[in-house]
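so i finally got all the pieces together for this one. its two components total, 373 residues if u count the protein bits. some of the lines might not be protein, just check the labels. i wanna see the whole assembly predicted at once instead of chain by chain like last time, that was a mess tbh
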Amino acid sequence: MLEDKKFYLTEKGLIRLKAEYQHLRKIKSFKTEGEVPRFLHSEDLNPEYLSFHEDLDLIDTRLAEVKQILRNVELIKMPSKDRRSVINLGATVIVEVEGENDEFQIVGSLEANPSTGRISNESPVGRALLGHKVGDNVIISSPLNVVYRIKKVKYNLS
Amino acid sequence: MNKIIEFLIAIGKLKKLKRKGIMMYGIKNPETTADHTFRMTIMSWLLGRFHHLNTEKIIKMSLVHDLCEVYAGDITPYDGILPKDKRERFNFVRKWPRFSKEEKKKRYYKKIKKERDALEKLIKGLPKEIQKEIINLWLDYEFGVSREGRFVRQVDRVENLLEAFECWQKNKKFPTKPWWQHAEEVVDDPILLKFLHTISRKEIKAKKFRETNKK
């Protein structure tokens, strides 16, 4: 259940989430006082979740969710030097699949968006790659076996 | 009321908009965007119950997730990179397209911009609060902001895979491989993984049965 789940976040993801939490709290207090917050027009705010903030019910639901995440968050840390050749959470991996190069970063479920190159450590591909290193062939077996040949592993978590 | 009728007539086009991702494999009468939306909504509702998600939200989110296609069309991951040669194209679409992380981001934000503009154009005559709700639901789906958003985004891919599986059942030359490759990078929800596993077993069983009969 969500209550017991650990949420793995990169440092950037954690900063973003904490900022969102503060923004939501501010907007909520402005809204309950019936004022339009001036900072809503700031260019620093991510326009993608700007409109998300306009409904009080949505704010409350999201606040509860973010609070729950922050309570159970585990930061994805840079591994020690001798572990950096191994794929762990946070690793960016270049693989060769059927003769083509592909690149992903392995992140926790919350930050995953394969369309932008971030895949979840709980997805079949993410899970299978964990623990492997350059030169390994990882077979993902759905009805058809697909080989992921690991070409490069790097960590860029700052 | 006129504006609402205009909106409904516009989204009626989705009943005829054939899915490009299926057509590129030579399927003459593929499902439409409305067909996909219909089954995906039912799937979200049925499977979302296991997680105690907000049913109203996931049903609405599923209903609106592809509305933008009225003006943006059905954008596929192969857009802009398909070889001109017919034979090359035939082989090309049998693999999931691969990109660098930067290239993925570039293509994704270009798609998002096109779809957002299309969605805003489509809903501009609707009452303001409905416009806001539709945009919020779509943003939540696209960026996976809430639990519901992350779940519905994955159901979308699972419905696509189910459709590919059905196409393969009808015509064994239909390649399910790119659909599997994509689904296995996107899906991490335990219920949806179980769903995929069940389909996978069905496909393996059907293949074994076919091979045995060949002998």
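Chain B has a mean pLDDT of 92.
The two ends of chain B are 65 Å apart (CA to CA).
anyway lmk what u think
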